[in-house]
Design goal:
Length: 68
């Protein structure tokens, strides 16, 4: 995974953990999927579309860090 993408993913993970508007279950599922995609080296290309499917509440976070 490219370094810039890795940094963006780390920002996203941090924002998800800190998000007050996500339930603990939404946070856990989102972070679990990101970790899985990182291992498969698919994380950056899958993030916006797949996370949006998990919870629409993630869209503002994706927009904040420029992934949407």
């Amino acid at each position: 995974m490219m370094k810039a993408h890795h940094e963006e993913i780390e920002k996203l993970e941090k924002r998800i953990r800190e998000a007050d508007h996500l339930t603990p279950e939404e946070k856990s599922l989102s972070l679990e999927k990101i970790a899985e995609w990182k291992l498969e080296d698919k994380a950056f290309s899958l993030l916006p579309n797949e996370l949006e499917k998990l919870s629409e509440k993630i869209v503002p976070i994706l927009e904040e860090i420029g992934l949407l």
